[in-house]
Write a structure and sequence with these properties.
2 copies of one chain form a homodimer. By secondary structure, chain A is of the alpha+beta class. The first copy, chain A, contains 8 helices and 12 strands. The first copy, chain A, is globular. The structure holds a DNA duplex.
Chain lengths: 242, 242
DNA sequence: CGGTTTTTTGATCTCTATCAACTATTGTGG
DNA sequence: CCACAATAGTTGATAGAGATCAAAAAACCG
């Protein structure tokens, strides 16, 4: 539950009453999924909102000819289909990256809590906005940055997001992504991604081994990526290495 | 106002009361902007919601080194910063593509109408969701499609959206985009875009001259682009050429 | 430990970027 | 309405980033 609070309380902390209302979301049924398993597929009726409790998930879209693009990552404390739950059909798929546990929350419960606690409703809305801002930043990434810059940007974003929810240790964090995943997120082939990865290592920017990501030089990383964390609204308390 | 209604009434038509409540948004002050002029810039406080009345606008993001990525197009009947108006800082910029007129609507007015008319609130929410779905489709476009496919997809999307708001004439429509704009949207250089454009002409797919877009073969266009209009929720009444 | 998944390497090809004109079109003021 | 300037579209030549194919080496897993 901690990651959810850290996500939502970045702007204004909640009252005890608000916190406990939110905490009741934990009573929603908890599902578990093994790693690498689909959660919802494009075309499905989302039915309910999901809240990631532990593990990572990812959004993606497959093309008829087999190409795949990863659209974003869902970390602990992130909602899946918060707004989309009103629609009858998912426009993209979501899958588990690691072993995953998540709450399935009826849309009515979200509505009710938002109705009763305007500040929570506001925090939900802001979360959705940050999600949209991330999409837009990825558009710039895919449209206008080189493979090297993209990868740098991707790592910078992930690291800041993990920092926000308290899942970093110094300049390290867990990162369950394979080079294949990274390639599908960065819009390059895995071969090219591998070579780009080696270059980042040589340059002393980041290192990724045995599912741990080491940020060797955040400033330089942010610099080559032209990364400006403002769109993530990290909040004042948190400042990546600064 | 017609485009707004066509946008919002795709799923369920409104009652007369709902329609007239929406129509009152027209009373909001109307601004006019010449073509090619900035409307809001990244970092600005959005302050209010904008509703495009006539003309096209575009969302974009500039990189410090001069590269630019277009993030999407705002057509008549589209809101700008519907949800984002709650945030204090725009994460991207918006500019006029053509001479533009738009209503500036206080966020409170939106809230009030959404409060009084749940079906309108729902329609607003769906619009936001379609906006997010468009972003996601663009991510696939930029990440996984070739320049030729991207351009085909872009035209297919624009045409369907224009059809929804009744701004097409047969298989033609107005299209004020320069090749430079198209290049910035497709994430390629304008030189390459020009050559891609010529290929599309040779292939008998689309033709763009003197600001008019001619769709020569929509089916084949959709086919090469792997374009599936579902994410746009075009509604049943409208079906591009089918 | 054997089998699977992931990472790495090498060689080659192709798409897209770059640079630098040049032509056509559009728009404007006289 | 023409003349000129500015904008937009087109062309050619060359360079470079990233794709593709195929296979080997490493890491991981039960």
């Amino acid at each position: 539950m901690e990651p959810l609070f850290r996500n939502l309380e970045r702007f204004a902390p909640f009252t005890d009453e608000e916190r406990s209302a939110l905490a009741r979301l934990q009573d929603s049924p908890l599902s578990r999924s093994p790693a690498r398993q689909p959660i919802i597929s494009e075309g499905d009726n989302p039915g309910a909102v999901r809240l990631v409790a532990t593990g990572w998930a990812y959004r993606f879209k497959d093309l008829p000819d087999g190409r795949r693009q990863i659209l974003g990552f869902c970390l602990p404390g992130d909602f899946v289909a918060l707004g989309a739950a009103t629609l009858d059909e998912m426009d993209h798929s979501v899958g588990a990256l690691t072993a995953l546990s998540y709450h399935t929350i009826r849309h009515g419960d979200i509505d009710r809590i938002a109705q009763s606690y305007p500040r929570i409703a506001e925090a939900f809305a802001r979360q959705e906005q940050v999600g949209a801002a991330i999409h837009r930043e990825w558009l710039v990434n895919l449209g206008r940055r080189s493979a090297f810059e993209r990868l740098a940007h991707l790592f910078a974003e992930l690291f800041v997001r993990l920092e926000v929810i308290g899942m970093t240790q110094g300049r390290e964090c867990r990162c369950p992504l394979t080079q294949n995943d990274l390639a599908d997120a960065a819009g390059v082939t895995s071969v090219h991604l591998n070579r780009t990865m080696q270059e980042m290592r040589r340059e002393g920017l980041v290192e990724l081994k045995s599912k741990r990501l080491h940020i060797l030089d955040f400033d330089r990383l942010a610099d080559v990526a032209m990364f400006n964390p403002a769109y993530l609204r990290p909040g004042r308390q948190m400042r990546a290495f600064a």
